[in-house]
Amino acid sequence: MGDILSQAEIDKMMQSLSTVGAAPQPVAVAAPAYQPVYVPAKVENRKVNLYDFTRPDRISKDQISTLRNLHEGYARLLSTTLMSLLRTNVEINLQNVEQLTYGEVIKSISTPSCIYVFQMEPLESSAIFDVSPSLIFIMLDRLFGGQGRAVDSTNRELTDIEKTVIYKIIERSLADLKVVWENIGIFSPKIENYEINPQFVQIAPPGDTVVLITLEVRTRTGSGLMSLCFPFILLESIIDKLSGESWISAQKTTTQETRRMVERELSSTNAMLRAEIGSTQLSVRDFLQLNVGDVMVLDKLAQSDLIMYIEDRPKFLGKPSVVGRNKSFQITGIIDREVGDED
Fold first, then answer.
1. Is residue 229 part of a domain?
2. Which of 53, 107, 151, 154 could form a disulfide with 133 if both were Cys (CB 3.0 to 4.6 A apart)?
């Protein structure tokens, strides 16, 4: 019979068995180095701007802002033009300048409408000048001798006479647009076509980007909208000039094209010219006693230069002469403007 184990040996053996069946102790391993990452405390409160990849913004906010400033000046100029044509107070405010697709613009135009397709030569493509029917009939009523009141029913086409009258107004409106756009370049707006159904006006594919400029026109008796639609293909060649810095610098300089245009416009202006031989003072009694053959002493010598007046303003010095059988005036000098002289 073997040796009997003592109590101490039994306890030692049980302790060794419990150690063998126990779970392995975790071994400490050094964590790899990492860069701290900043996590916002309240991500749920952050505003997320959605971006539609089917409608990319091809014109920057700075360029849109330039177009807004440009056509705010156009609204003021057009207001003055319509006021002189309609003989009534006209207030025009720039309502919106936004970037849309051409398909969205066509859907927003009512039928029938007054749509004028025009070109901005020498730029490629065409643009749209749209006038709401309510505003058209307000202007027609005013031009035909009425008070300029709105018509209850505007769902009719214009007559040939009405089309001719409105055509002249659109021409004047585009002439004002030409003046405002001189800060960008020299363009010549010309009307190409007139349509009443927007579905028949195709100046760009439906998915192309366009800039829609909306003007609100108010008179004493009613109001209506005018809108200009420029496709991106038309603005693409001048898009660099629509930045804020380029536009401001263009306003400070006068180009040779602008100078030639002003000279061309002034060359067709009529002015009254007259040459003054001299002057003298007579009493009423002496004036009434003048007879044929009497001689008056003037304040100029016979060989002195005469003064030529343009619209009652002295501008040139010269001498009377004859060319063939016609009387003429030979300019010998220019009268310089004096300090404080208003022109």
1. yes
2. 154
